[in-house]
Amino acid sequence: MTSKLGITVAVDLSSESALVSPVGRLTVRNVPSLIAVAHRAGSFGYGLDVVMDLRKLTTADPQAVAMIRDSGWHGNNLLGAGQTGRGRAA
Prior knowledge:
Layout (H helix, E strand, L loop, with lengths): L4 E8 L4 E10 L4 H12 L6 E5 L3 E4 L1 H9 L6 E3 L11
Parallel strand pairs: 2-3, 2-4, 3-5
Antiparallel strand pairs: 1-2
């Protein structure tokens, strides 16, 4: 099974925020790319609030969600991860 992940980044400079929205299947193999994109989104402007919204994922491996939490990613919000990072990220 292919573990493709599409990532959309929406930057709103007037509200000083960036929304990172992955779509598809989040796995331990593609989560480093998602983290790198989230870091880059935060570098578009000084002090951007970065929100990572996982609610549009079809599935998310629990280990992948844990990798995001353990990565030192300094985003302000992680939406849709749930308390345990279950298989479905909705």
